[in-house]
Amino acid sequence: MKKILDAENLQSNLLEWKEQLFVYKFALEEINTKLNILNEEYQHIHHHNPIEHMKSRIKSPASIVKKLERKGLEVTIENALEHIQDIAGVRITCSFLSDIYTMFDAISRQDDIEVIRVKDYIRQPKLNGYKSLHLIVKVPVFLSNQVKKVKVEIQIRTIAMDFWASLEHKIYYKFDKEIPQELQLELKQAAEAAHDLDEKMKKIRDEVDLYKNNINE
Ligand code: GTP
Ligand code: MG
Q1: How many C-alpha atoms does 150 have within 13 Å on its Cβ side?
Q2: How far apart are the first and last CA of the chain?
Q3: N or C, which end of the chain has less CB nearby within 10 Å?
Q4: 49 alpha carbon to ligand 2 midpoint, in Å?
Q5: C-alpha 132 to ligand 1 mean position (Å)
Q6: pLDDT of residue 17
Q7: 128 lines ligand 1 (CB under 6 A)
Q8: Are strands 133-142 and 88-94 parallel, antiparallel or unpaired?
């Protein structure tokens, strides 16, 4: 039997849909716990929190349906589970660029996490100027009678990158995905300014470290 998830059938499928989404919530809880542990441990050892803040969300069934349609896929639960990588998503905002790779390394080293895709839009920014490190990972969720490996999208970026991305996102939808050319140019310049700010902040932090080390000597 096909599990069609269009608007009409959405209601009748809601129960099964909820059951499937259930595990994504647990996967997010697993990831959040792991990230909090890493953050606190890092604070303890290095007196610095790599994570400034983080936010997680489960994609709504309506958005999942829209994304499947956009991808030209039949709207079924199976297709959603297989082809939508960001049903569960976590966004980690870091203070410094180096924190991004610290988190990435620490996540990748965990035996129970499988990193299945990495998109480094920091080393290779998108043409519009977008920067972030994107990971798709699989995390095991232990249920009473089985272990489910659940996909989670993790986006890691600095505060400056996040500031840029949230404004760009708003503009993108304000102009119905067709941003006028001159605004595109300005956005790109703003992305460069955000990058300069990240570099400047790093330089200041290095100077602070140097200053403190000299005092302690
Ligand atoms: P979707 O874009 O989600 O269909 O999948 P994809 O496989 O292309 O993933 P990608 O890793 O490129 O982007 C995933 C997510 O990153 C998006 O859903 C956005 O949240 C964010 N993102 C990607 N590109 C941009 C961008 O140009 N601007 C902003 N503001 N966010 C972006
Ligand atoms: Mg995309």
Answers
A1: 25
A2: 73
A3: N
A4: 29
A5: 9
A6: 77
A7: yes
A8: unpaired
Which residue out of 69, 82, 114, 153 is catalytically annotated? Answer: 153
- Buried b / exposed e along 147-179 (16+ C-beta atoms within 10 A): eeebbbbbbbbbbbbbebbeebeeeeeeeeeeb
Return the best residue to mutate from 60, 82, 86, 87 for the ligand 1 pocket (most ligand atoms within 8 A of CB): 86
**pTM for the whole thing?**
0.92
In a 3-state reduction of DSSP, which class is residue 151? strand
Q: Whose CA is nearest to atom 25 of ligand 1?
A: 130
Residue 53 CB-half CA count within 13 A: 5
Residues 6+ apart with CB under 8 A from 186: none
List, for residues 58-81, the tens digit of each pLDDT value: 999 899 999 999 999 998 889 999
Is the pLDDT assigned to residue 32 strictly greater than 60?
yes
Rg from Cα positions in the chain: 20
Dihedral sign computed on CA atoms, order 81, 133, 126, 158: positive
Q: Is-catalytic flag, 199?
A: no
Nearest to 77 by CA among 184, 5, 176: 5
> What tens digit of pLDDT does each residue of 37-49 get?
999 999 999 999 9
- State the complex-level ipTM: 0.95
Q: Whose CA is nearest to atom 13 of ligand 1?
A: 134
C-beta 168 within 6 A of ligand 1: yes
- How many whole angstroms separate alpha carbon 88 and alpha carbon 76? 17
